[in-house]
Amino acid sequence: MRLLAKGCGWMSNFLRALPLAYVIVFECHGCALEAETVDFVRDVQPLLKVRCQRCHSATTRKGGLDLSTSAGLLRGSESGRVLVPGKPSESRLWEVLHEGEMPPPGNQALTESQVELLERWIAQGATLGDTPPNRETSLNQHDVLPILLLRCVTCHGRQKQEGGLDLRSRAAMLKGGESGPALVAGDAEASLLIQKIRDQQMPPREKLASYSIKPVEASELERLIQWIEQGAAEVEVSADVANGAPDAMVNEGDRQFWAFQSPQRPDLPAEDVAGTTAPGVPVLHNPVDRFVQRRLAERGLRLAPRADRLTLLRRAHFDLLGLPPSASLVQAVAAADDPLAYERWIDRLLASPHYGERWGQYWLDLAGYADSEGVQHSDPVRPHAFRYRDYVIRAFNSDKAYSRFLLEQIAGDELADYETSAVIDDVIYDNLVATGFLRMAADGTFAGITGFVPNRLDVIDDQLRILTASVMGLTVRCARCHSHKFDPIPQRDYYRLVALLKPAFDENDWLKPISGGNGQAAGKARYLPYVTTKERTAWESTERQLSEQIDALRAAIKEKSGADSFQKEAEAKIKNLEEQRRPQPMVRALWDRGQPSPTYLLQRGDYLRPGHLVGPGIPSVLTSDQTPFNPEPPWKGASKTGNRLALARWLTRGDHPLSARVMVNRVWKHHFGRGIVATLDDFGAAGARPTHPELLDWLAVEFVESGWSVKHLHRLLMTSATYQQDSAVVREHQLRDPDNRWLSRMSLRRMEAEVLRDSLLAMSDKLDRRAFGPADEIESREDGLVTSRAQSGGYRRSVYVLKRRTKRLTILDNFDRPRMSPNCVDRTVSTVAPQALHLMNNKMVHQLSLSLADRLISEAGASASAQIQSLYLIAVGRPPDNAELGALTDSLVALRGQWETHLFQNAKASDAEKVEPDAHRFALGNLVHAMMNSAAFLYID
Hints:
Elements: H1 2-7, H2 9-35, H3 40-51, H4 70-75, H5 92-98, H6 112-123, H7 141-151, H8 170-175, H9 192-198, H10 208-211, H11 218-229, H12 287-298, H13 309-320, H14 327-335, H15 341-351, H16 354-367, H17 386-397, H18 402-411, H19 426-434, H20 453-472, H21 491-501, E1 527-528, H22 533-559, H23 564-579, E2 587-588, E3 599-602, E4 610-614, H24 643-651, H25 659-672, H26 693-705, H27 710-718, H28 731-736, E5 749-750, H29 753-763, E6 767-768, E7 778-780, E8 786-788, E9 795-796, H30 810-814, H31 833-841, H32 843-860, H33 864-876, H34 882-906, H35 915-932, H36 935-938, E10 939-940
Parallel strand pairs: 6-9
Antiparallel strand pairs: 1-2, 3-4, 5-10, 7-8
Helix pairs in contact: 3-6, 7-11, 13-15, 15-27, 16-17, 18-19, 18-24, 22-23, 25-26, 25-27, 32-33, 32-35, 33-34, 34-35
């Protein structure tokens, strides 16, 4: 045994070496695996089928990506290529799998070894069976046209064809211009187009900034050369539009979401809904109340008692007019005993011309209304924007059907042939002015430095956001760079909407918003001369008279050339007459110009990465696969496409899933402080769910069946017991409805910025109630505050004050008047120190308090008690109770004594007799000022 052991020493050495050999063998086997070719059909395709093709197949192409075939992998997604052979780190497919972005949460992720397998496949060249991944691509006109549109058509396109050359089509390039054909198919070196670009003669360097273009990039030149060398192929390419075939990106399941279904009128809950027998709560005849009370009863709650008449009067006045009720009206209502009086108040308020000023402001917020272009520091003024503002106010006052209101704003230029009409009447004029709705986004393209294609695309994007958020309640702009993360809105659908607007908003054939930077309208820019025939005739008559007078004076100067005194006098008169001239009246409008350039899906939203051709269309989720979007010219022989008219008619269909719901929800919000859907601009998956879905649908159907009447909607809501509730909060509310989501009471609301300013002016008799016309100027004071410029009759309502983006009224700014970026769907309400400081210290507020004190002295006489009672009626819409009257009378006496002491100490002997009345005036002004700072005034109960 000892010999055996000694002779077997080699065995122990072998055993010691075994682990090392095992490692070597294992690692070499690993090297062999790593070197082994990964086969697409055997290894990759089954993996993609199991893990990815539920969302990315030929029938379900989320993000435009089909991973079921080699052709789909080569085609890539809406964001571009997903494979870069030999470069895993640059391949989007490997990137999203490696980072864990895909599959989405809730799905089984790929294992580490599976991700490594895909990495090796891509590193080895991403071979796709018999399809070579990096074969040379055959180019056609759509591969090069985006380059020419971006770099060349400013000088060689629709508006201008320098040298007689048009570069918008292959045929035009072959035809060429004054120097001959621009291209020679099959010979790039002989093509003038390539020669001029290569020699850097085109685009002209000296014109780049003023024309807002950039030189052709090397990769773009290479692509142009490749296209020409391949024969400059032109092929028939169908645009991506709805064509009746099943949609691989949006399915019927997506369309089942509540907001994408047409509203249906639900059955009304019974009148005897549980919990409605509380003292002070009327029988629920109004349908609104039945739906509300049913939700309250589920939570053991009931409607609150009715508020008193004066509270309701003030509430209704501010809600509909944005102004306080007059003292005489408050007294009349307090003395009246008519059970139907409330309904008559509502009708009178709805008939007031101030109603449109109040509710028009809400729509102007949605439109992003501003009187200046923004973007640059110069912030040029829009001289004719006020016409759109006036149109909106008139539309609300006349209770124009909301469907017609939308139709005019989206496609007013396609409702009548204004270009050949002998007379421009009020209807045609309103149609054109209404399209200003799509001209309100900030637009810096008036200047070369902010007028490049990306800037133009931003303007279009902002206008699309305004349209879709305000009318459809969807965040469509989220699909600009990629398919929407939450809603079934593919990136393709965003660009279908872009294509729909293209005949009016063509980034490759752009019209500047103004000429130069001085804010003056340009006849060849985005303005039309079609004001009413009456207005144009009056302007022409005035211009003719002024011209005749000026010509006569100039002729007289020539006749009396030696008379210096006469010449100076005549020149002064000429100057005065010239100053009376007014610019040609124009309309800030949007109009279909026909012949739009092609629209391409921009991969990742990058204007330098155009993808496939897209045609006009509407979001697929809101229609069916079998309803292609087929716009037609609006009248026989029209050069217009009819795109926006088709869109507007679709939006105003009675069965549209969103249009009526969104508007009803917005009106509800302004009456109750919160929408049934809290996210006013997002009815999608990421938005809030409706608190009262059946009520929302009932109201939407009622709205449509009433002829889309907004005033009918006001009456319905404001005559409900829900609206007329008291705002007092009791313990039950705190426990079961702390946020008042279920409407167990009326919500207390602070005055909006414009309402506060207008109310201060109205109470002080400084409000000029003249309506319409150019905006009132604003001015900056030495202390930096911005105020409006007084007119002969005082200060006009805030809706008529110039809304300049870089210079905003300080009082409105402090009290949350929104900045238009690009619009405002829902105003925020803040409570910050500058608000209290403004009301306490602002010079104008002090002046207004003295003006109201003067009014009280004039109207109420010398009695301090009468003055205080009148102050309460004017400021808070009710008489003071005994405690309030006593406390304020005592305060007035004390303040008057302090003022008398102060004034006597500083008065001259001759002014002694003025001390007592002045002391009373200043003391009363102090009381008024305190009232202007009080919650009783600032909040609407």
